[in-house]
Design a protein that fits this description.
This protein is α+β, with helices and mostly antiparallel strands and 209 residues long. The protein has 2 domains: 12-84, Ubiquitin-like (UB roll); 87-202. Helices cover 56% and strands 11% of the residues. The chain is built from 6 helices and 5 strands. It has helices at residues 31-42, 65-68, 85-118, 122-149, 162-178, 181-202, and strands at residues 12-15, 18-19, 47-54, 57-58, 77-84. The protein has a 5-stranded mixed beta sheet. A hairpin with a 2-residue loop joins strand 3 (47-54) and strand 4 (57-58). The radius of gyration is 20 Å and the shape is elongated. The protein starts with 11 loop residues before the first strand and ends in a 7-residue tail after the last helix. The relative contact order is 0.11.
Length: 209
Amino acid sequence: MDKDNEGSFLTKIFLDEMLIDYTDTENDAVVGDLVGAIENEMRSQKRIVSELEIDSEPLLYWRSEDFMSRKLSDFKELRFTSEGFDEFVASAVGILQEYLKVMVENIGASVAVIRRGSGLKPELMVSIFEGLVQIMGTIDELSRGAAVMGTQTFKEDPLVYYAPLLKQMEALEQARSRGDSLVVADILEYEILPILADMEGKLFHTGEA
């Protein structure tokens, strides 16, 4: 890839504000192909793609399999930002730890509200679901970034928490749709909170010598 070379592709691709040449001759390259090529070139510098804007709009959790399989030709402009891998990990881990802390506090407070008979407030449930999605999305970003660099970001494999958490989120949504506040409170307190607490205690290297 040569920077500042217009190339023959329709999609304009930038890395750290510099136009790069990535020729999609067959018009069938996907985002994952491009990201892989970029990060292969940056690996020796211990840098990783940390942010992406699509047509001037920032995109979160763009390393998902669904998005990485999208064709480049679907977009007019992709702007990637790179970052030193160590800095990327430190920032993302800090965000994840804060998400977990806030979610544990919010769920505890939500359970108390529900058990007092205040009902299932829509904004409360939306906040809980969005927070859980943020946690899982951040873990996914970190795991995929670590895989690129061949390093281990977490003390334990965070993927072991995905299936149990998804299962409880599905059960939570079913109870919410039935209006069963007691079951909602039970799932939050006795199923989801222990999973988040386990993640807080087992995932991070913080405090080790």
